[in-house]
């Protein structure tokens, strides 16, 4: 794979690897153990000019392609999945929605501060009673003059309590189902918006996750994204591209677990020889390396399709599904290879093992990815 990278891509990967190993790796275990939001990593991401990575250059972003994002965020997830989740939610879900669907005025009003990292973004779609079936939304938006009043709640919102800007999906007409969905850019200091952090996650424990409540929360009409009824289309389009980011995260964490395993097999001896000389161990490494490469190739293809302006609905779902399940395989084998030492907190593979599990759940569970893929293949092969 490395041979297929351009010189610029190799340099980008090395620059981010040095940053991640120098600044994120030493703190990742602390953020995890204390369920501590990784503010230091945000400062580092700002300094590296990564908070506006994929945001367009005309509003202060770096204007990077998804292929470049996949290189950057693989390196971040390789050492800290908490930072990766925080970063990807900000750029690929929140800022990206405003960049792609915001009016020129909304883009100028919100994106420069998001691109610099001065303002952090969140994305509020999931509700207590609707996750996979996102169209079954209970949060309402009622027009009142030049504003809307939002009422309802969102759950599991990444960066929810830490964010300054939240893209929120509501129903302005519950009888119209998905076609009654309307999206807004909500400033989180708006009156009537409150957040309650959710604690006790299995993995990505440093990333912020919150319940968000709206009680007659007044949002100006000027903050509506598109027209009334555009919300569901916007959400689905963004989730399609964001799946590339989640596939990237899975590749990165699988690579992190693999790298730890490869180091360990060269140090530990059993039955008078290093672990690396036992064929059972060699075969585990072979299967891990093959799955990581396949996941990376699927991810790169979906990123290239997006960058070239082609449809990538099926390909992004394939990349997210395969990469998250490959990561599951790799973290499991990495713990196995470490034996009893892999079962203890002080070993990063233990954290990767817990952090991995969410990649098969958020931004569409593996079952939802299979629904997307099967729908597409049946459509393509209809007789
Ligand atoms: C840590 C964390 C961070 C998150 N961050 C965000 C965020 O920032 N913004 C946001 O909006 N959401 C966020 N989410 C929500 C996440 O996207 C949802 O949890 C996910 O989409 C699944 O929804 P659910 O939990 O309601 O599960 P459900 O939809 O209740 O599904 C339960 C199970 O049933 C399966 N299932 C459901 N329907 C079908 C079907 N038709 N056929 C077969 N199987 C089915 C699912 O695959 C799953 O296994 C986050 C979640 C977590 C845990």
Return the structural class: alpha+beta
Number of domains: 3
The end-to-end span amounts to: 38 Å
Classify the oligomer: single chain
The SSE string, one letter per element, is: HHHHHEEEEEEEEHEEHHHH
Largest beta sheet: strand ordering: 1-4-5-8
| Global shape | globular
CATH 2nd-level architecture of the largest domain: Up-down Bundle
What low-confidence regions span 5 or more consecutive residues with pLDDT below 50?
Answer: none
Residue share in helix: 40-55%
Ions, cofactors, ligands: which are bound?
flavin-adenine dinucleotide
How large is the count of helical segments?
10
Word description of this protein:
The chain is α+β, with helices and mostly antiparallel strands and 383 residues long. It folds into three domains: 119 residues, Acyl-CoA dehydrogenase/oxidase, N-terminal domain (Butyryl-Coa Dehydrogenase, subunit A, domain 1), CATH 1.10.540.10; 111 residues, Butyryl-CoA Dehydrogenase, subunit A, domain 2; 148 residues, Butyryl-CoA Dehydrogenase, subunit A, domain 3, CATH 1.20.140.10. It is 52% helix and 15% strand. The protein has a four-stranded mixed sheet. Strand 9 and strand 10 form a beta hairpin. Helix 4 packs antiparallel against helix 5 and helix 6 runs parallel beside helix 8. The protein is globular. It starts with 6 loop residues before the first helix and ends with a helix. The mean pLDDT is 97. Bound molecules: flavin-adenine dinucleotide. The site of flavin-adenine dinucleotide (FAD) has 20 residues, from strand 1, strand 3 and helix 10.
